[in-house]
Amino acid sequence: MGRVENKVVVITGAARGQGRSHAVRLAQEGADIVAVDLCKDVENAGYSMASNEDLEETARLVRETGRRAVVKYADVRDYAAVRSAVAEGVAELDGGLDVLIPNAGILPMGPDVTVSGFAASIDVNLVGVLNTVHASLPHLRDGASVILSGSIASLMPPIGEDEMAGAGYVGYRFSKHALVDYMKELTLQLAPRGIRVNSVHPTTVDTDMTNNEAMFRTYRPDLENPTKDDVAPILATLQAMPITHVSTADVSHAVVYLASDESRYVTGTQLRIDGGALARHRL
């Protein structure tokens, strides 16, 4: 306990999924949290986004650990909104930012997703991350940690199944791939201040982003009402280990390490939580 004691953390996409998991896990280790989310549906995403109640529940869970939580509503596609949310949130926690996790993301799936879904993926998953990082730069303390939310999709070459996944997935993969290069360059820019920049790259994570009707239908178009169990055998073929996905906690454990001073000289790293997926594909 106390691995990130008294650190101030900003997390976008904090209302549920990986964002909530990171917030609670970091609070358990002593951090105070600025939890940011849009809490409105995103056009062309293909599934419902988190609600105001979801974000408030994240804050409640953080406070239950004895740490402080500040809730801010903002669309990461809107630079001015993100800048205000970060500045106000950090100010409410006495100023200064120690850990930044621009986690907000969407994954429109399906062969019927058009170029609008492609654009939406890039707007949220790439532009939204850039907006969040750049809005936070004035607040980062020396020695801070920036943790980008990547994906093994960014490290794998395009495969035949991508056509089935549709334009939204192509935009998602492109966004995550672009962030790999961005992370490398940002690492060099911030290193003189001792600020670390790293990425976590999970395989499929058990969240609403992957557990929705659009995703199930993409993998099992042969079924009228496919379920999570119906797509499990397909997802299991991705990893070398006998798993269909990882949990949010699996990713959060890696995030805690990168947020803590235990990783004070770890920067420019792409940390894979993928059950051997890339190894299986000889990558």
Automatic annotation (TrEMBL):
<keyword id="KW-0560">Oxidoreductase</keyword>
<keyword id="KW-0520">NAD</keyword>
<dbReference type="InterPro" id="IPR023985">
    <property type="entry name" value="SDR_subfam_1"/>
</dbReference>
<dbReference type="InterPro" id="IPR002347">
    <property type="entry name" value="SDR_fam"/>
</dbReference>
<protein>
    <submittedName>
        <fullName>Mycofactocin-coupled SDR family oxidoreductase</fullName>
    </submittedName>
</protein>
<comment type="similarity">
    <text>Belongs to the short-chain dehydrogenases/reductases (SDR) family.</text>
</comment>
<dbReference type="GO" id="GO:0016616">
    <property type="term" value="F:oxidoreductase activity, acting on the CH-OH group of donors, NAD or NADP as acceptor"/>
</dbReference>
<dbReference type="InterPro" id="IPR036291">
    <property type="entry name" value="NAD(P)-bd_dom_sf"/>
</dbReference>
<dbReference type="Pfam" id="PF13561">
    <property type="entry name" value="adh_short_C2"/>
</dbReference>
